[in-house]
Description:
Helix content: 10-25%
Radius of gyration: 14 Å
Mean pLDDT: 93
Order of helices and strands: EEEHEHEE
Strand order of the largest sheet: 1-2-3-6-4-5
Structural class: alpha+beta
Low-confidence stretches: none
CATH superfamily: RutC-like
Number of strands: 6
Strand content: 25-35%
CATH architecture: 2-Layer Sandwich
Shape: globular
Distance between the termini: 18 Å
Number of domains: 1
Amino acid sequence: MKQVIASKAAPAAIGPYSQAIRHGNLVFLSGQLPIDATDGTVPRGIAAQTRQSLENMRHVLAASGCTLADVVKTTCFLADMALFQEMNAVYQTFFTDAAPARTTIAARELPKGVLVEIDCMAITGQPASTAGG
């Protein structure tokens, strides 16, 4: 059964989609923008935006009963591939052991004019619960 996952610690969806969907042991996160859920601001620069997107990812994963260690695939969308090195330097601090598979692409434009958006898929051995967090 499909379960909608939401976390108040991450920014709410800005359109008709869920922060994440869990089906059995699979969790699919929508793209996480670098928006601070507490005040709606976007940090300046690719390093800070990457960090914020990954922190938002961590919050949504936690609401689903997962951690970053459960992530098996990510997709990173960059406003410009010239940002890759800086994004990658921050990204590798979040995935220090067995890094997930990853695709990184440049997008012509990202929502709200941000520099990065990151989505992921995770697998967990925990059974699905009936409540999101």
